[in-house]
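Dear support,

I submitted the protein below through the web form. The confirmation email said the job was done, but the results page showed an empty box. After a refresh the structure appeared. I'm attaching both so you can tell me whether what I see now is the final result or a partial one.
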Amino acid sequence: MGIKKILVAGLLLLSSNGFAQTKVYIAPNGKILSEEVYEKGKITSLANARTNYGAGYQLYEKLELVAETNDSIKYKFKWDFLTKDMLAEKLLLDKLVGSAFKFKDLNFMNKSTAEKINLEKPTFINFWFTNCIPCIEELTALNELKEKYRDSVNFVSITFDDDKKVSYFLTKHNFNFIHIVDEKKLIDSLGISGFPKSFLLDRNQKIQFIEGALPSAENKQSYETQMISLAEKLNKLI
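What the results page shows now:
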């Protein structure tokens, strides 16, 4: 092979290596995963979800580009494990992001609490019902958020249950939100079919984030990770 051909071959090799970017993935808890670990994790996590919840679950990934150089690409990622019906609901709810939420003409359990909502603040809305086990399991997280952000964020709950059911529930459980009841029509109009759900509204009362069930405090790692994520989102809105 001539000198010229060797130089050309070397330049092509250098060029191809220059464009071989390494992908890394940043988990919600901040842990950095290689592409190999990430792909294996998807397979293992989906298998666990199907074992624990049912064969109908699928993994849906959300990637956010964080940084890109000649050598690497960094993504933040989030995995959701959903059935087809749950995915259909998620796609419907995602369309609500950016739209305004109106508190006018809603059925406040205690009429005087309507005046406590300061529409110049961000608002955290939790959709729930009294016999919903995941709703009850996330109360620790909700109360912790309320205590931390009570001066800077409105905390409101909305349910299709009537005031008698909610009043009785509150004698058994601590849930110190402003409560709106008997709102089945509103909940149906939003497309909510799985509970609980939480909407995070900005200062203009526009929906910016939609969250599913928060983990029980008994699952310490998941609980801490999700609380950090929620705190970051609320801090952006304040």
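Response: this is the final, complete result; the empty box was a page-load delay. The first helix runs from residue 3 to 18.
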